[in-house]
Amino acid sequence: MSWALKVDGLGRVYGEQGPRSLPGTGPEHGTSVSPATGAVVAAWDVGFEVAPGEALGIVGESGSGKSTVMRCVAGDERPSRGSAYLSAYDDGRTDVLALDDGARRRLRIDRVAVVYQDPAAGLDLDTSAGGNIAERLTAAGGRHFGRIRERAAELLELTEVPLSRMDDPVRTFSGGMRQRVQIAKALANRPPVLLLDEPTTGLDASVAAGVLDLLRNLLERLGVAAVVVSHDFGVIEMLTRRVMVMQHGRVVETGLTDQLLEDPQHPYSQRLVAAARG
Amino acid sequence: MRTVTELAGTGGPRGIFDELSKREVRRAALTAVAVPGYQVPFGSREMPVARGWGSGGLQVTLALVGPGDRLKVIDQGEDGGVNAANLRRLVVGHVGCEEETDTRRATLIQSRHRIPETPLRADQTLVLQVPVPEPLRAVEHDVREQRRMHAQEDYARMWVGLYEDLVRNGVVTKSAGYPCMVNGRYLISPTPIPRFDVPKLDQAEHLTLFGAGREKRIYAVPPHTRVEPLVFEDVPFEVEHTPGAACRHCGATASYLVEVPSMDGAVAWVCSDTDFCTRNREVR
Amino acid sequence: MGYSGASGGHEAVLAAEKLVERRRYGGASAWLGIDQITGRLGLAVDRVMGEGGLWAPELAARALRQAEGDVQEAAQLIRAHRSTVPRVAYSEPVHADELRISRRISPAFRNPPGSQLLGRTLDYVGRLLDLMPEDQARARLQAADPSPEPVPAAHDLTANGHPTANDHVTANGHPTANDHVTGNGHEAGGHDGGAHGDPRRPPRLLRLLRSMGMVVDRRTEGDPEPYDITRAPIRPGVPRSARLTAMARAETGALVHLWYANTFQPGRHNHEFPGEVRHGALPVRVRHPLTGAPVTVTEVRVTEVETIDDLDRAEEDRSRLDLGYGMCFGHNERKAIAMAGLDLLVHRDAGRTGVEQEVLLTLDGIEASGFLEHLKLPHYVDFRSVLDRKRAVRAAMEEAVAR
């Protein structure tokens, strides 16, 4: 198989789950709220594949459903329907969305890692940078203090965090530095799939540029399959080769990132591109 | 149909614990033995001692003890302390079993904070009083989340705690009540026994039952069960030890010694296990 | 007598017990009769029954005397006593509408249906230490109120089933001295007693608010059988009946503290309106073992509160109000009001914060004070372990400095 992650027919509805909730929602209706039931169709019929070493972007405004898709794939919430497969789990034969909570949580240890917009969502701020990475390493069975220290140092070096800060609580770090620690933690057990949710949103422009540079280098070097969720075409352009545009819970356009930026077809894509080009 | 009087049964001498409740405790204890280290919730009753004063250990002991038993009760290793004496007279008065201080002859031992120095046998049962049963409380406040962590064997945050301790202090600072993995599955607090006593739980001949009355849980370490303190492979588990210390009564150096300070700064040491100390003196 | 000498523990315990008994049975003062305690210290007896979780005025009075007036200790005695007695029957559910009131106030309306009944309350009696000599006070009472009827002891209603105190019911919201309701449940004062016509069982404000469409209805079928917290451990996620039982047995001060502390939390508390504050008697019925018919075996006095609060969260129905419920044994309004407030607080919190856990696990006075006081027990084995680690840390620090 050529993919590391495959998602099929993913949907997430808040409120009544039945088919009554679907009609009247989507981009052509300009809403994701069902007129019949009031349910919110946050995402519907979303599918994609990501190959090792490849990065896929999901772009859209807030409320477009892009973060819902990411949270469902990550296991932070359960989708209403759809399936997802990881080549690194049971050779891609098992729908990981159907696994029980414990098994899903274990996937997060070394198969699928997530970097959140807010470092506090992925880190314990009162724990040291090294300790945060140790959480992942011990979850994967690491029991040798010396080797845990070595690996944590290696990861902090990789994400350009000064080793002198390794034993300081993350709370004492700047926003950009926290995000680098979160990336180090996500990479701790060499996951084949990495999900990035607005990884630079909320950082100052110059700091964000540094983190983006780091991420681009890492994605090129590590051979990881990445999904990058962002409202910002600038981020998508820098990190991804392919992109999906989402609006009101549906995918409205997919394509190669540079081509789509060059020649967006869907009016919504055109608007997003225009906004990014400023 | 039975009358209310029949339902109420005969008056008889009033116990401190009704029979149905004892059965419930036994059922919980059996579940605990079947799932080593798992904290079995039970409908803990109020006892004639305050919550936190051995009400859990007392319920377990009362559910197990019979008139033919020889009961030893110790607190801090001592048979003669006020709390041990009080619990012993309560059970003996209730059941009519024999009081015992000699560890070797006791069939049932209720203890607070110690495991006797003399190794226990398969025909003996140890009941430990538990003030705080939940080891995860050190890292997690929410009891629902604690249950999830146990269910999913998600103990990474305990390891992080250990990692942080070593980074900050250079040594593991957790003193008594050292968290342990039972049978490679469940994390327990072995009650505030000193680290010195933790190895005695590993592959022991005897059954240990832990009763937490206030928090309404019973758990167990059955005989021949692995009990491993949470430690990194390359940072050895340290037990309490003071070089040169010896019991001033019996001269023992390998028992658990407690300090007897004096205002002039001189420190003497005595065995905390008074039964062991007495017999050790006789041997000398 | 050593605190924990090698063999002196038993003797020390016996000696302590002797000193306690000397205080309990000895001394020069007059012996305190059970009827004096139930009659003169009724509110303390009520608290013991509430926190002990057992309606038994005479046992509670006995416990209070044994505990030298320590309510907490007396409640502990009652709880331990409960563990020794078998359960011969379970009472039938009783609707709170059957509550026969001796006091009912509703701060939410001036003239609520069913009227206000101020009843016996300390609320408006001057909070001044009464220094009048007892014989003068008795003579004054005799002169002002030469009622042939003796004032019953606080817990007598279980004996005769009817409160006969001189309670005042009015229809206009102002208690007046001359409107009397006699104890047999029939109106004597000739005034509007509400929809039922029975001023002792006034209609509920909740019913009115429901008919106005002003309260959300969150009755569910999910909690049909009351959760018995004395038989099953309580933990977050238990049904509401478990939460209410836990609070009914909670320590009054702890409930008041938690409620009060939450009033300082932004977003945690609006201004509540107790729609009902009731004190009265409820029948206890069990099924007759031969006929199977429900039989009233006794009555219990309870305080009941339904407190109303505003809904203002985004996910709440902001066009309506919601209701919290409190009920406890005896006359203890501050407990029932705090309980009702916390019931609603936990519901509205919906797991956002740890307040549910706090309510379920930290309010029991017997557990809290037992754990606190256990600190007095010998801890020298673990203290030695702590000292050992402190020395280890010190050695590690010195080593680090040397390097």
Could you characterize what this model shows?
The complex is a heterotrimer of chains A (278), B (284) and C (403). Chain A has 278 residues and is of the alpha/beta class. Chain A has a domain at 126-190. Helices cover 37% and strands 22% of the residues of chain A. Chain A has helices at 66-74, 101-110, 119-122, 129-139, 145-158, 175-186, 205-222, 233-239, 257-262, 267-277, and strands at residues 5-14, 40-50, 55-59, 81-86, 112-115, 193-197, 225-230, 242-247, 250-256. In chain A, the strands form two sheets. A six-stranded mixed sheet of chain A has the order 5-6-7-3-8-9, with helices on both faces. In chain A, a hairpin with a 2-residue loop joins strand 8 (242-247) and strand 9 (250-256). The longest helix of chain A has 18 residues, at 205-222. In chain B, strand 2, helix 4 (82-95) and strand 3 (98-99) form a beta-alpha-beta unit. Chain B folds into two domains: 19-229, Rossmann fold; 245-284, no CATH class. In chain B, the strands form three sheets. A seven-stranded mixed sheet of chain B has the order 1-9-8-5-4-2-3. Chain B has a three-stranded antiparallel sheet with strand order 7-6-10. In chain B, strands 11-12 form a two-stranded antiparallel sheet. Chain B has helices at 4-8, 19-34, 55-64, 82-95, 143-151, 156-169, 198-201, 274-283, and strands at residues 40-41, 70-75, 98-99, 108-112, 125-129, 180-182, 186-188, 207-212, 217-221, 227-229, 257-261, 267-271. In chain B, helix 2 crosses helix 3 (55-64). Chain C has helices at residues 9-25, 34-40, 42-52, 57-66, 71-84, 134-144, 157-160, 205-211, 240-248, 252-263, 333-349, 355-361, 365-373, 380-402, and strands at 100-105, 116-117, 169-170, 273-287, 294-310, 321-329. Chain C has 14 helices and six strands. Chain C is of the alpha+beta class. Chains in contact: A-B, B-C. At the B-C interface, helix 1, helix 4, helix 5 and strand 11 of B face helix 1, helix 5, helix 13 and helix 14 of C. Chain A: Keywords: ATP-binding, Lyase, Nucleotide-binding.
